[in-house]
Input
Amino acid sequence: MTMMVDAFDYLFDGANWSGSQGIGVFLVQQLLLTVTALGIAVILGLPLALWAGHTGKGGFLAINLSNVGRAVPVFAVLLVLALSDPIGSEQFGPYGRAGLATLIALVLFALPPIITNAYVGIREVDQDIVEASRGMGMSGVGMFRQIELPLAMPVIVAGVRLALVQVWATATIAALVAGPGLGRIITRGFANERTSEVVAGAILVALGALLLEGLAVLVERRLDPLRVARQ
Output
């Protein structure tokens, strides 16, 4: 109990939020990393997965690329990138030290659930509906926009939601290579033997994950055409 009290005392101390090594800076870095990595992953992975799902081509490649992405340890990728000359561990704008390496590693980590869910969502649309729309003379583009995409949207958004929470939580490992984000609070607490600081960092990461999950669920419900139609 004392440990939790000390952790909340640390969080509610305004002095710990200010300065270049304060909670505020690390929180902004973590948010920037999460939003940017997710945005890039959506831009890169979603069109490919939707095209593969609609045409039925390249599905084997899309699924296997996702499986490979899941199998590769994120920390191993981050370490290799942080130690490489072209990317390295230098400052990367507001993302902080080793920010570019962290960003690339998180993008690679976010791609598998986005690609898998988008492809599966499109492929699992009821084929009777697809055939009926084709029989009515609907074009391939029209069928995709008006039939397949709306019906697959809940599954697609669920993949993005999963990637969002995973990226947020995983971004903390950047601190192991002196990178940006809330993980710096945890590693600093371990280094200085301040348990309250370690717990405070873990609390922030957990609360952030819960908040992002809740917001993503609300967005998912708003984009579900069947739920909207029932309402």
Notes: The chain has one domain: 2-230. The chain is about 75% helix and 0% strand. The first helix runs from residue 2 to 11. The two ends are 45 Å apart (CA to CA).
